[in-house]
Amino acid sequence: MGSATEFNRRDVFKRAAAVTVLAAGGSSFLAACAAGGGSSDGKTSAPGSTGNAANPFGVKPNDPLDVVIFNGGYGDGYAKAFEAMYKQKYSGANISHLATQDISPKLQPRFNAGNPPDVIDDSGAQQLKIDVLEKAGQLTDLSVLLDAPYLDDPTKKIRDVLLPGTIEQGTIDGKMYSLNYVYTVYGLWYSNKLFTDKGWAPPKTWDDFIALCATIKSSGIAPFAHQGKYPYYANYVILDLIAKQGGTDLVTRIDALDPTAFDDPAVLAGVSAFFKIMQGDYLLPGTNGMTHTESQTAWCQGKAAFIPSGSWLENEMIKVTPADFDMAFLPIPSLAGDKLPQTAVRAGAGEPFVVPTKAKNQAGGLEFLRIMLTKEGSGKFAAAANSLSVLKDGIGPDVVLKPGTKSSSVAVTAAGSNTFNYSYPDLQTAFDTELQNATNELVNSRITPQEWVARAKAATSKKV
């Protein structure tokens, strides 16, 4: 249903797929990679800069370009727009376009044969694991891209126009190997039409949120729905409450699986605040057992007022969202004494694009990424996929955004430098699973906030 590598449900499918890939044929893939890496020392290589701002990688105008796109929630219309932009610049290039959800089954044999595509949106349930590809010397070091001139203003480098965290998200051992292109924002979502009709004001504090929940319930609508079969959605709320209360240093300690992090009073404060939803009986009946689409559909139907999610939500539910729904984003409301401001949001880069070392048109693959990182490219992506790119100020006034995307864009601007993100869902999967299990017990009121904290602290010993 969507893209991957954002810290959300897509990662669950990715991790399951990774196990499958390594168990079924992964050894032959690794062997082939080891035998056919990027260079004699096992390190990846990339074209050097030509010193020509218009063509820094030395693209040959008539060389064909082979593009593979994960065909998930973002679709592939945006990629076709990028290809048209590439074709305008290199009219003699024949562009091959494959949109598929079967990334690993389609591409593993090509990597084995030393014939990978030139650029890949490596995402989805059957993503090829980027760390595996990098260790085998199969991915181009994108440092040359970061140091290339920005097409819209050649006085700037690409690295200067990326949103915070983009480079870090694609970095392994000090080098960037993937361009995570989609900038995802996490928080609560609501229908602005519903709130306007009812005269409800979006809350800025958690106390106001809980008070509003009581008002919403009295109107006959459930205040809160969540994707119960996937508890990490509820963890967006819990961990964001914790982050805002305790600050970014606490986020870092949690990601590092520091058991003493869970002794910080901010942790219990965040979990206890979230638990007030259950104490007030504010959950949509049955939401604890629903899938993401089931709960989100009920929310779109007006059966619940709030739902947690990332900014892929609007595009994911576009077919069932009423035309006048007016989807809107809300940063997690503040607790008293928060170290981060109310406008702070969890946000980060996802949806990795890579250029294989053995791509026939490696220079063209790099140039394709550079074209993506233009105002025109970012605007076309936003219009087609209803999501933001990692380009700073990447949405021009001429781009017409859907309400939810516009709302999340406004939130990112308001947050400024006050953004944060967690890496544990991607890098500490055993811990993440235990945290989800604890949250499942919490939303069913089978454990207390204090017991949730104890379980989370104990889970720090489960390192991968």
For the record, the CATH architecture of the largest domain stands as: 3-Layer(aba) Sandwich
Return residue spans where pLDDT drops below 50 for at least 5 consecutive residues.
1-44
What is the arithmetic mean of pLDDT?
89
Name of the CATH homologous superfamily of the largest domain: Periplasmic binding protein-like II
* CATH C-level label of the largest domain: Alpha Beta
Question: How many structural domains does the protein architecture include?
Answer: 2
Can you tell me the CATH topology of the largest domain? D-Maltodextrin-Binding Protein, domain 2
Layout: helices, strands, pairs:
Elements: H1 9-35, E1 65-70, H2 77-89, E2 95-100, H3 103-112, E3 119-121, H4 130-135, H5 143-146, E4 149-150, E5 153-157, H6 166-169, E6 171-172, E7 175-176, E8 179-191, H7 192-198, H8 206-218, E9 222-224, H9 232-246, H10 248-255, H11 265-279, H12 292-300, E10 304-310, H13 313-316, E11 327-330, E12 345-354, H14 362-372, H15 375-385, E13 388-389, H16 403-415, E14 419-420, H17 424-427, H18 429-443, H19 449-459
Parallel strand pairs: 1-2, 1-3, 9-10, 12-14
Antiparallel strand pairs: 3-12, 4-5, 6-7, 8-10, 8-11, 8-12, 8-13
Helix pairs in contact: 1-3, 2-14, 2-15, 9-10, 9-11, 11-19, 18-19
